[in-house]
Amino acid sequence: MSTCIKNIGKLINPNADGTWEEINDAAILFDDKIIRYGRESEVLTDAKDAQIVDAGGRLVTPGLIDSHTHPAFAEARAVEFEMRNQGKSYQEIAVSGGGIRSSVRSLREISEDDLVERMLPRMDRFLTNGITTIEAKSGYGLSLEHELKQLCAIKRCDQEHPLSLVPTLLAAHEIPDEYRHDRKAYLNIVMNEIIPAVAERKLALFCDVFCEEGVYSTQESRTVLETGKKHGLIPKIHADQLTDTGAAELAADVGAISAEHLDFISDSGIAKMAEAGVVFTLLPGAVIFLGYNQYPPARKILQAGGNIAIATDFNPGSSATQNLSLMMTLCCVFCGLTTKEALWATTRGGARALNLEGKTGCIDAGVDADLVVWDCDEENLIPYYFGINQVRKVFKSGKLVVNNGLII
Ligand code: NIG
Ligand code: FE
């Protein structure tokens, strides 16, 4: 049976070119996909047999897309949060054996079933934040066995929970403790064992690498991404987060679909990525949570013709948030984005970064009926009430999954 949301005060639908379609007094008719949308008086004529939902004059947008997250972890790292607030830096904590390596140790101790159980409440929280699709990375296993365990857990969450999870292999997230003396040996395992095994089992769509001083060099990152490509995995890259390593240029060179963080991206990196059509994924949660103040140059990116996505980077170390609306606020306040630009980046931009454009992230006919009814009537109130969740209803593939802000 189809559903019709009527009495929509304002519907906003992101266009492919970065602009918006806005309709007042609108309605949307859908089953699992959007059937039609437009002025209420026109849509209602087709909705005779549909179940009617009254939006009460509120705002409706596509479901949000969180295109960069690390949700498959075992334990929080609040101890490191305290350490940073007492003056230790993220890198100092990492070099002394904490950071990602601490998440690797705890992840290796738990079973796949246990991991799924810990992840499912996080999936609920994405949905109640208006997020209907996430990208989910591995990268806390760092061995064949434990990377597969993470990716299998991600697949099970995708199957068992209404949220859609798009899997990314991030075996090159760090060098695990047991290979600190021989990083080449670990890289060989990544390229000769982990990538082929994951690709063969179709457990990931993307291959990512943390390209950073003290982690993977640009040369090593190139080799990993090229190997992933040979096995059919589309490149993504953690780029220029803490220093300018030339990772943005590398993203353009290898034909990455997106490059993420980019707080220290160079002008030449911006130009090359924009020309190559690589999506610029901004992760302001990691900037604020690590106590830094250098945000990505979003206005320069837009001036260069680049496409932006905004994501939470949800992970236990550098960005422990699932509130994508708050990430919009940070991009408006610290990067000078307008609300509409930020909302484009969390809907259509996120879909583009995940190769899902035309499938979700907009409200066109034939697209998955992933929709949010907000508790406000104007989009600029979303980032304005910062840190306040204003999601009222969420539809995922046409099914009501959040009502009055609560999971059904
Ligand atoms: O995107 N930069 C590398 N990876 C994550 C952090 C992961 C962690 O600290 O656990 C990020 O910020
Ligand atoms: Fe990340």
UniProtKB/TrEMBL annotation:
One of its GO terms (biological process) is L-histidine catabolic process to glutamate and formate. It is found in: Cytoplasm. 4-imidazolone-5-propanoate binds at R77, Y140, H173, Q241, S318. It comes from the Bacteria. Residues 59-401 form the Amidohydrolase-related domain. It is an enzyme of class 3 (hydrolase). One of its GO terms (molecular function) is zinc ion binding. Zn(2+) binds at H68, H70, H238, D313. Its EC number is 3.5.2.7. Binds 1 zinc or iron ion per subunit. Its cofactor is Zn(2+); Fe(3+). Gene3D superfamilies: Metal-dependent hydrolases, Urease, subunit C, domain 1. It catalyses: 4-imidazolone-5-propanoate + H2O = N-formimidoyl-L-glutamate. Catalyzes the hydrolytic cleavage of the carbon-nitrogen bond in imidazolone-5-propanoate to yield N-formimidoyl-L-glutamate. It is the third step in the universal histidine degradation pathway. This is Imidazolonepropionase. It comes from candidate division LCP-89 bacterium B3_LCP.
